[in-house]
Structures are given as structure tokens and as C-alpha cells.
Amino acid sequence: MNISKAFASGLAALGILLLVLSWAFESMAPYAWYFAIGAFVALSFVPNSRLIRVGFATVAMAAMVFFFTEFISRTGVGNRSVDLTEDDRYTLTDGTRSILSELTEPVTINYYVTRDVDGTPSAYKRHIPRVDSFLRQIEGLAADDLVTLNFIDPKPNTDEEDAALLDQVQQVPVTQDDNLIFGASISSLDKKTVIPLFSPSQETQLEFQVVSAIAEVSRRETPVVGLVSAHNLAMGGQTNRGWLFYQLLQRSYDVANLGMMPTDALEVEYEKRKWGDAPDYLDPEKIPVILCVHPAGITPEAEFALDQYLLRGGTVIACVDPLSLVAQQSGRPQFPGMPPQGGTPPSSTLPKLFAKHNINFRESQVIIDRVYAPSNNPRILLLNDEAMTVKDDISLSKIQNLAFLMSGGFTGANGKPMGPGLEVSKLVESSYEYTFVSDQTLNSPDAANQLRFALGSRREGDEKQTYVALLSGTFETAFPDGDPAAKSEDSGEDDGDKKDEKEKEKEDEQKKSKALATGTGRGNLYLISDSDFLYDGMAYNARRMFNTEVVEPITGNGAFMFNILDQATGSKYLIGARARAEVYRPFTVLKEKEAEFEKARGEEMEKLRQKRDNAQAEIQRITSELAKNNNSQRNEQVRSEIAKYNKEIVDANKEIREKQKSYQAEVDSLKATIFWRNVLYVPLGVIIIGLSVFIWRKQQTKAR
């Protein structure tokens, strides 16, 4: 036996020995097949027969390719893929990579999935490999191997199934006898969070679900968000347990409910968090951002607190509204001819701050925008990438769409720009084709016809309206005379109760020194022209899936707000991952066709409808006069008039239908053209390339 055969025999013996040991020691079990393959490859060099060696080598090569592929698939290299989607939907965001790279505590992911269950829906079969690959990628990117991923197959009547149920992972019944468990528990030290179900319908939220859970359990201090609102966000909504946005807000932040009198609530909030004695002002170091949702009826004292907060370098997110649907629903039913019966005022603004910073916002005036309003419901604005004019702003990262309901708009007052002396970013803007309608128009019995008329008669404005704006810089106070609360206290004193003049002057000086006139830090004021955009049905929907309530984003509204909050609290990492909701892709060509139709035929259609309505009114008048005169008999003249008006109605309806058919035919033709282009372009391209290659090769052959 030569040296090479002896060496091969030794390797084969070593591989067999390790294979036997792997059966005895559990730690070596994952490598058993690799030992077997190594032994088999070594044996292929031992026989003298070339035919036997070729047979060994063929089988060994096939086995090596298979297991090498399997080995690579379990590493970060094997889990890499090419993302060809327009919005990089399957590429990890920079925020995710930052969270994983900066972990300091170990995180354990217990991933429960029952495999090989008969009757598993096809959607889950497709989604399971996607989750497998994603979790392996997360584990590979974590710093210092701090993320431990445990694949657990909770088969029925096993300890693994009991562990999944203890972790509150959801069971999905797929047959009468079998259940699918497909979820995860994520823990770090004493903190744990659960993803009860990886739903295929929430595939776009997979990255945010997992990474936000890792961030939640690894975070030791939760940022505080102050909430100022005339609404009670903790009540109502689809689930009657508060707005869905508010429920998610509580999961990510420590929410300080400040009501509509922020400074009055500080003592309770400071005591709850053991911050010590509460000051009489809002401190940005304790509460880095204040979310102000529909501040209807805000008092000067409350607005002064926000003003001073901005001057101290705080961030205020002001969601004001010309006509809030949620506020309208909060009051008791209104009787015709009677004033509103209580409830939250429907319109909100920040009058002093807006006046100081030259912000014009029309109360009770709702925008109708031709480009972004669907024709069947012009109250809604479906804002896509075209409306987001500042592409590189971090708050709009990965946001594909926003939806506003009965929104207003911001412009500079008196023909001058907003925020003199401040940096102004107009993040989301209207088109030039918009108009305003009043709240009386929207709430009138004839609202549908009024809106249809407004939709057809929208004009091109000289200036765009701003739906979302950011004012940044060193603010100046909107209260040059100081705290309005101090004035009210002074005016309420009786002459007999007046203090000593010197003591009073001293207190006045102290109060005046506390009230800042110019900012001491860089403040930020976000202006959002709608408050209902965070309400259920506009930002999120809740639905029951077996025994679990699933909250799904339906627009980018919630993600956009969380992006701003993350940025304001210094936690920018989740920006982008949470924004991957379903994308609203408007048919811009069809909308342009619709706009052309409205412009060209809108007035003509309106005349036809008016003609039809007049004829119907005349018939009703004739019938009413006959009934009034107790004359049920119709003479020849009356019948002739009614027949004439009926003919006018029929003719008008016929013309309206014909014009609508003509428009629909144009739309159908356009759709068919787009469809056939998509179907035929690729095959035609392949045929042309093939023919070109064939002709070229033919010519090369002839040349020889």
C-alpha cells in the first residue's frame, strides 16, 4: 500500500470514528453527515480498480454538492439575495443594522414553527421559508453573537408545544386535528415580548415586528412622549380600548398624558416617574417631544407652555384640523336648526403661535385637491411620492403614501413666507389644482352634489398649500407680555387683598425672568394639517385572526408619525423598517384622463343633469297641484306635459349614459393597451434578439 492509500485509509477511519462519536455525543450530532461524507470521500481513493474509484467519486461529488449547498444556506452568505423591488422591500434598513450592531446584552429568539403539517395553507407554506431566512440573517448580523436563534418544532403533545403555549404563541387550526404554531418569543435578561403569529398578510411588517421587539427587550430606558389632546385617545376606536395608534404608542414609548393643561399635569407625571419636584414649565430634557393632537379650544395658558417649551429647544408636533370627524362623532346627535349639542369642537388651531410665525390656516375650510383626491370621495387626500417634496427628510424615509381626511392647508399669511427667521421645510404639499369648501358644504343635506360640483370646478392656484411642514431654529416668544396666567391672577385680586408693593414688584420680576423671550435652544415645530389621519381606519385596522387581534397598517400615516417621534427622541434606528405598509399606487394616467373628462365635459354633464332635475321637479309640481286640488284625473293637456317632461328625462339620462360610456371606452382602451404591452413586450424582445443572433451567425457561416 502506497503512502496516498494509507493516508486516505486513515482519513476514512477518522471520519468513521467521528461519525460513531456523533451518535453518542449530542454536541457533535449536527456534524454527523459531514463526518460520513468525509469518510466516504477518503474511501474512494483506497480501491485499486479505477471503475470503483470513479463510482465512489461520482457518489461522493453529488453528496458533497448537496451538503455544501445545505451548509452554505445556513450561513449569512447563503441567505443573501438580490432585491429587485422598486422600494427595496426585502433589503434590511440601516436602522436595523445599527440596532443589531450596537447590542450590549444577549437576546434570545425562540422561533416556534410546526413543519410538515398536513393542510397548511399555501400562504403560510410560502411565508415560513421567508421568516426562516430573515431570522438567520438577523442572527448573523448581531454584534458579538449576542442574538441566539433557537429553531423549535412544537410537535403535538411535546414539551416544545407546552413551551410555545406558555410563551403565548398562537395556534392556527389547519385541520380538525392539527394546529399550526408559527410565532416567536424574544427575550433579554428580565424582559420578554412575543410575536404570537407571523401572518403572511403582514409580510411587509416582518422586519419591523422582529427588530422592534429586539429593540424593546434590549432597551433599558423608554423615551417619554408628552400627549396634549382634546380627544381621549385611550378610549373608543375599533376595539373600544383606545385608538390603535395610541396602543402602539404605549408599546414603544412612555406616554405622559398632559391633557389640555400641560403644566397642571406635571406634578402627577413627575411623581409617577420619580423625577423629583415638578417645575412650572415643560422641560425638554425630561419630555423630549410633545404630540399635540387636535388642540381644540386651547387656552392661552396652555399655548404659552408650548411656546416656552419650543424656546427651550423642545419638539412640538401640532396636528391641527379644520374639521375633525372624530370630534364631530364625540358630540350628542344634533337636531335640525339647533346648535351643536356638546362634544369636542371640530376645528383646532394654535392661534398665538400661528400668528407669531406668520402661519395661515383656514379654520372650517377643507381642501379639495384634484390630483390627490379620489373622485368617489373628495374628502380624502391620497398623497403619494409626488406630494412629498423633500425626498431626503428622515421622517419620510420609506413612506410610500399618506391619507388625510378633510384636511386643511398651511401657507404664509399676508403674502409673506411662513416662519420668518426660521428654517422652513415643506415636507408634503398640494398640487396647484385645489379649492376650499366650507364645513357647511360638507355637512349639508346636498353634500354629495356640492362636492361633485367642487370636484369638477377645481381651479389652479397660484401657490401650493402645505399639508406637512417643519419649522426649525431659535424661536421667539409669541407672548411678549409674559405668562397670561400671571395677568389673570393680578386682575383677580381685590384692592383689600393687594400685597405690599415691593413684594409684588419682586414677584413680577421673578415671573418675568422665568418667561423666555428668545429661545435658548434649537426648537422644532411640526405642522400637520389633519388630526384624523391617526384614527382607526386611516392609519391602522384591527382584525381578529383566530384568538389573536392583529393590527395592520393600511397607510403610511402611523409609520410617518413614529418616524418623527423616533427622530425627536434620538432613536432614529427604527425609521424605515416600520414604514413598509402596502403601497398606494395611483393610476396617474387614468387620473389625468379623468381630469380631462371633467374639464371638457363637466359643464355639459352638469347642464344635462340640471335639465333632468328640472323636468323631474316639473312633474312633481304638476302632480302636487293635482293632489292639492283633489283632482286625480289627468286631462289631455296634463298628460301631454308629463309625457314631454318624461321624454326630457329619458333623453337627458340617455345622453349622460352615452357620454359616460364614451369616457369608459377610452379608459378600457387605455387599460387594454397597457395590458398587451406588458404581455407582448418581453416575448417580442426575446424573438427579436433570437432572430438577430440567428442572422448574425448565418452571416458568419457564409463568410467562411
Q: What do the pLDDT scores average to?
A: 79
Which percent range fits the helix content? 40-55%
N- to C-terminal distance: 56 Å
Molecular shape: globular
Side-by-side strand order of the widest sheet: 7-6-8-9-19-18-15
Cα Rg? 35 Å
User: Strand pairing plus helix content: what structural class?
Assistant: alpha/beta
Largest sheet: 7 strands, mixed
**Quick one: how many beta strands?**
21
**Individual helix count:** 19
Instruction: Outline the low-pLDDT stretches.
Output: 333-340
Q: What share of residues are in beta strands? A: 15-25%
Q: How many domains, in number, for the residues?
A: 4
What key phrases describe this protein's structure?
704 residues, alpha/beta, Glutaredoxin, 4 domains, five-stranded mixed beta sheet, 19 helices, 21 strands, 43% helix
Written account of the structure:
With 704 residues, this protein is α/β, with parallel strands linked by helices. It folds into 4 domains: 3-73; 94-214, Glutaredoxin; 222-330 and 343-490 and 510-568, no CATH class; 588-703. It is built from 19 helices and 21 strands. The protein has helices at residues 3-24, 32-43, 50-73, 94-101, 122-141, 159-166, 206-218, 244-252, 266-273, 300-311, 325-330, 351-356, 439-443, 447-456, 484-491, 501-514, 557-568, 588-628, 636-703; strands at 107-113, 147-152, 171-173, 179-188, 191-195, 224-229, 254-257, 289-293, 315-319, 359-361, 365-369, 380-383, 402-405, 410-412, 423-429, 433-438, 459-460, 466-473, 523-528, 540-545, 548-553. The strands form 6 sheets. Strands 7-6-8-9-19-18-15 form a 7-stranded mixed sheet. Strand 1 (107-113), helix 5 and strand 2 form a beta-alpha-beta unit. Helix 2 runs antiparallel to helix 3 (50-73). The radius of gyration is 35 Å and the shape is globular. Mean pLDDT is 79; it is low at 333-340.
